Model the fold of this input.
Amino acid sequence: MAADLAVGIHDLSFATTEFVLPHTTLAAHNGTDIGKYHRGIGLRSMSVPAADEDIVTMGAAAAAPIVARHGSEAIRTVVLATESSVDQSKSAGIYVHSLLGLPAATRVVELKQACYGATAALQFATGLVHRDPSQRVLVIASDVSKYELDSPGEPTQGAAAAAMLVSADPALLRIEEPSGLFTADIMDFWRPNYLPTALVDGEESIAAYLQAVEGAWKDYTEQGGRALGEFRAFCYHQPFPKMAYKAHRHLLRNGGQDSDESRVVHDIGDTTAYNNVVGNSYTAAMYLGLASLLENADDLTGQPIGMFSYGSGSVAEFFAGTVVPGYRAHLRTAAHQKAVARRRPVDYAGYRDLHELSLPEDGSDHTVATQTSGPYRLAALSGHKRIYQPR
Done:
């Protein structure tokens, strides 16, 4: 294995849902000043899954264009990261593997650690490719963010999946060593097995996030990472876009750097375009931010990007990637913009019906209503088995 082998993200694609709830609609229902959403948390709308959409259908929709472009022959591993799993035992990635028609000679596994899971999957994937540079790894991050109606977390809901092909000689982003790591046992956000929605302590979660930024950065510098001033831009996990701004100010101040608004906007302003209209997509959120950065920033060729991944509970990682020459030829800007634009607005009553929808738990035969216009759907349940199909 060559010590200087370049490994990283060769392709990046994302998908979201059939429906969208504008925050103006939510604000009209609950009497909130729209500025609290648009300016306070940086959100304008949230993706809402159709009755026949879930992490499997979104994950397959995100990954299908990657398989179509590159083929499946070299994909030996699929890692699906989620905190919205559809089964306590079987990896959601196996359903995706089947929908995409991937070879039987494939390793498939699901990873979980709140919103951090996709970064664990990415690091797992880079290790596999370093071991065997002829192989490629398909990493999928897919989640539905869901809170109780009329709860403080409700405006931050969302849903999306991001898929990445990890390979040697990547076309988009070369992942660097080292990483800065941080873990703390904190109950800022969690979801017991018996609850359909997450529990969150908002103030504790913000404090835990900032603690993790500081801790992961400290470890990154101690491991010999880049200096803070070297980075052209930064991608953060975005439970809501304004959290990225708050986190970056904290990092700059902690590093003794200027943290005025112009500096913060320069460093992270191009990363929020998708998250502020999709909402929180948990494991996928930071990678939607990366897609936004690559598609909207001025030429980033050869520039280092700082990446901060956070998962409540909590685990965090700070790492770096260098943008590869010629990356713009491989971006999926038009497809991503279409994925966002194609969503159908839903009124509050329709959103509430979808939010409260629950599938039968008695093992009976149940046909799921056809709503999505996406390429894959959850068609039915029978004998406690989920049945997916191309649309």
Remarks:
- The chain has one domain: 7-390.
- The mean pLDDT is 97.
- The radius of gyration is 20 Å.
- The domain at 7-390 is CATH 3.40.47.10 (Peroxisomal Thiolase; Chain A, domain 1).
